[in-house]
TrEMBL record, chain A:
Keywords: ATP-binding, Nucleotide-binding, Transport. It comes from Paractinoplanes durhamensis. SMART domains: AAA (SM00382). The keyword ATP-binding applies. Belongs to the ABC transporter superfamily. One of its GO terms (molecular function) is ATP binding. It comes from the Bacteria. Residues 4-249, 279-509 form the ABC transporter domain. It holds the Pfam family oligo_HPY. This is ABC transporter ATP-binding protein. SUPFAM superfamilies: P-loop containing nucleoside triphosphate hydrolases.
TrEMBL record, chain B:
InterPro entries: MetI-like, MetI-like_sf. Residues 94-288 form the ABC transmembrane type-1 domain. This is ABC transporter permease. CDD domains: TM_PBP2. It is found in: Cell membrane. Signal peptide: none annotated. Keywords: Cell membrane, Membrane, Transmembrane, Transmembrane helix, Transport.
Automatic annotation (TrEMBL), chain C:
Its main location: membrane. This is Peptide ABC transporter permease. InterPro entries: BP-dependent_transpt_permease (IPR050366), MetI-like (IPR000515), MetI-like_sf (IPR035906). Keywords: Cell membrane, Membrane, Transmembrane, Transmembrane helix, Transport. Pfam families: BPD_transp_1. The chain crosses the membrane at residues 16-39, 82-106, 126-153, 191-224, 244-267. It is a multi-pass membrane protein. It comes from the Bacteria. Belongs to the binding-protein-dependent transport system permease family.
Amino acid sequence: MIAIRDLHVTFPHRRHTVEAVRGIDLDIEPGECVAIVGESGSGKSVTARTLVGLAGPGAVVRSAKFEVDGRDARAFGPEEWRRVRGGFAGLVLQDALVSLDPLRTVGAEIGEVLRVHGHRGDRDLRVRDLLATVHVPEPERRARQHPHQLSGGLRQRALIASAIAAGPPLLIADEPTTALDVTVQAQILALLGERRAAGETLLLISHDLAVVARLADRVLVMRDGRIVESGGTASLLSAPSHPYTQELVRAVPSAATRGRRLSEAGVVAAPEPSGDVVLEARGLTKRYGRHTVVDDVDVRVGRGEIVGLVGESGSGKTTVAQLLFGLVAPTAGTVTFEGEAWTGQPERRRRARRRHLQLISQDPLSSFDPRWTVRKIVAEALPRGGAVEPLLERVGLGAELLDRNPRQLSGGQRQRVAIARALAPRPSLIICDEPVSALDVSVQAQVLDLLADIRATDGTAMLFISHDLGVVHHLADRVLVMHDGAVVESGPVDDVFHHPRHDYTRELLAAVPTLEGEIR
Amino acid sequence: MIVLRRIGTGLVVLWVAATAAYLALLAAPGSTVDSIIGDGADTPLIRSQIVQEWHLDRPAVVQYVDYLWRAAHGDLGRSYLLQRPVRDVLGAQLWPTLKLALVAAVLGIALALVLAVTTRRPWSRRVSSTAELVLVSTPPFLIGLVLLSVFSFQLGLFPVSGDRGAAALVLPAVTLALPIAGVLTQVLRDGIDRALDEPFVITARARGLRERAVLARHALRHALLPAVSLLGWLGGTLLGGVVIIETVFGRPGLGQVTLQAVTSEDMPVVLAVVVFSAFAYVVLNTAADLACLVIDPRLRRS
Amino acid sequence: MTLVLDRPLVLRPPRYAGFLVAAGFLVLMLAVVLVPGLFAGDPLAADPMHVLEAPSTAHWFGTDQLGRDVFDRVVHGARHSLAIATAATLLAVVAGVLLGMLAGLAHKYADEALARSFDALSAFPLILLALLFIAIAGPGALSLVVAIGIATLPHYARVVRAQTFVVRQAGYVTQAVAFGRSRLRLVLRHVLPNVLGPVPVIAVIGLGEAILAAAGLSFLGMGTQPPSPEWGAMLSEGRNYLSVAPWVSVLPGVVATLTVIALTVVGRHLQRRVEGRLG
């Protein structure tokens, strides 16, 4: 269906030219599911979009052979590309909240495809059929709604419905599940699997090896615009031959990786818990009006212990972090920090103790004053006269970054700066709110290793909030599972994840795609 | 519910504006009677008339409430210069001004829409943006003087002044419309650019839509939001602009009445024009808010 | 074989060019304002022998109805026009920033009251609000300054208020709480500098708007009184001779326009830089 040789995509800019894709070959046979895996900047999305002639503004595309549906696409004019788009290949992007026009109804968006590709017959009826095909309940009502009125899962289904509306033989899904909760992700993956079983050809683009493993027949691993390795899914992921693929596979955190390093070979020492309690919350409840966001939550973090807090979006885990941090006062319940009352204290009293409780957020950039350099940011957290350089060295950053603005740093470097700043006041507890969610898997591995090292050497306790069960299983000693504002299950991480007692925990665990689970 | 709240906010703003204008009058140096009389005839009879008309013998609070009450009913007091109710003075001059403002608004909006949509190619875009920058930065009366100099004095195509027939409306309307078109084109273009960067545009293109359809069905609607919310500003600019344009082109209208009232310190008239313009602004702004609710369903929440 | 998708790239002159030209023009304007004598002769010297002469090498911008050199008058008028606009903008910025910050940091109800007042103030068209003020206080340069200052104040107040909200909720303010900083230090170290950041930039663009407003009001005869030169007033005077000597009114207007364009270009350039830094 697709046959490409030596594809180059470049974006010429005034001073430099960005080579997004540097000579790749790609063949897609009818009925197969091919996956392109890579980290951000690997060129995987550009490759996918080039297949439908949407490489991007100013892109220059060169190739030795570029066949789409058996015809030479290099000679395609705008009209021919138009027929390919939607008619031959449907495109599904990440996050339907922004990938569907927010001002138009779902039905209008799907109907648009039908109109463009000359659908004959009752369009509304067809839209309803399509929504039913992707298992959207009450398709008539949903078709009249706008994307923001639908849940994330339904939105993504509607987006898929619009991509398959004109019956294209090829479906290109670019990170189709990235913004979704695990249980919803599992449903969308099942839906894509259904399409594939129905004989549709699928090109899957993802950063997540486990997601790819669940669906793909063949995997291509991309890095810096090149394909470094390709082959059958099972053989490639269980026995990768290229060092980069090996690194990627090793970097995926899971139950099996507990106690070992992710970014390199080696083990991390886990200290024996001492039994001292650093932070204890009892009956923590937060209501906004009639809406209960956090419902009677107990949290206990021992000295040097890493406690995981997992839950899907809207489960209340971030509110728990805010309550513990003391930004928001709880409606009911108490928090004790280092043996003394923490809630109900005037801020003036808490100020001196604040230094022992630090916070790392998902988006480090917004937590830095935009005018400040790395040096100033870290120095603000240091006690008077403390030196910045040793701290940066601890988190693996060189002194040459001292006078940079965080905007000039990569995502991983920024998170390291945030960690350095959190370490500066020598805290006894760090609240980490989704600290690695925005990072590529190899960078995530380095940051997770760093956090494990810090705990091992300093005995700093952490409350690690994450939606990623693999990360929590890898890192945490104990885990709390949150659902609808309440903790449904808690205990040592191996007990909870291997022998879940609560239905929700079971559902959550079943939904998570894991490398080990998929490659049998 | 949300509609009622928007209208409520509009009423509050209008009330604050009317109060501010009233306070400005009170804050004027000298007694209120002096500032109302201004340069007008000053006799004990007129003074007592003013005291009676404005109820200056009553407590300040009562006066204020009375002023609001009467303003809410459209009674804007009496002009001392013209010895007529302000409502009649303004009413007689409202149509020429309204005619000019409406024609200019339609012209400006149409020009902006056409320019924003048609000048997407790099070179036409550069030419258009430069023209917009010049138009936005030029004092409106200079545009009027240049047009007058070229089309009336040099070419003799249009009358130099007055309000006789459609020909006399052309140059003033164009003068008023050009800066408006400049601002609106910039806003629309910016809105379209932003919308075209959104992921849903890639989805729309991936459906096989023509670029023109992407622009018309998706991007333009997004670009309309910021443009529509300028509706109140547009009304205000037109009302402020007519004062100058009517002077340049020697047209009758609200602007001329206002200027005359300012120079002769005919305070009831000045106050009425100012409060009327605030009223127009609030009405248009509220209408714009409601229009945005229609365009963007996301705003209907909460 | 090369295939170019989407819109083709066009080689553009560097974006700096416009900024540099505009900035150069503003520097020249500043020099003109500070030492007008260096650039032009007496703006009041009338020459009855050379009345309403067209632009020539002797009189670059021609002469007016009294035989005064229009170029000399434009150069000297810059001082009046720009002084009024600058003073009005300063007034608006100072008052607007204070009120905006107050609203942004205040309690819910106080904030709501202030925000509605800004709305109410901006409900008046600039020219009409200024005219109301002039009707009360009488015409003159000082009236123009206060009138334009008050009328443009809500713009700054709103920007500052919105910015204060953004900064108050920013992650870096939350973080600073974690280091046990007092509220006052938070405001001084993080809130204030980040709120004030964009203000100078919008003030540059606002200055252009103030020049336009001042010229418009002077044109209506509400500002600087003749014979002292001021751009708007010059246009107004020259209007009567538009049919025979358009340069008398048009050329001062062109200079005013160029100044406003230069301010806008420089302002937008700085705005992009600030946005790039913050976003």
